[in-house]
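Extended Data, panel c. Modelled sequence:
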Amino acid sequence: NLREQMKIHRQDPACAACHVRMDALGLALENFDAIGRYRKEAGSNPIDTTSILPNGEKIKGIDDLQKMVEGDDAFLRVIAKRMFVYAIGRRPNLPDKLAIDAMIAKFDWRQATINEIIKSIITMDAFRKRRVVR
């Protein structure tokens, strides 16, 4: 059982710090397989997407997860920073962080898309003027 395996994994102090925060989110997304296809069962077992966040809040599935992050600039900021690191190949410095904050400020949360974030990142000086190592 996945939940039992995760519980055992969280008991290892080396793993617990991250897994305490991430496992509940993973369980909420369990209806989606490794390539994003929706499923109601894993093998012949029904999938239970109920989980409890570290703050004690109970969520069930992607709808509750979406409500939790909807309108949360911190969520959008994390996505933008991670995409920045992937695109640029380094962590953002102070000017980059200010540019990311300005980018997020102009987004309407409900309208923001991954494509808009990508377009904003590739127009940043950090992307256009980066040194490419071959």
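The chain has a mean pLDDT of 88. This feature is highlighted in the accompanying rendering.
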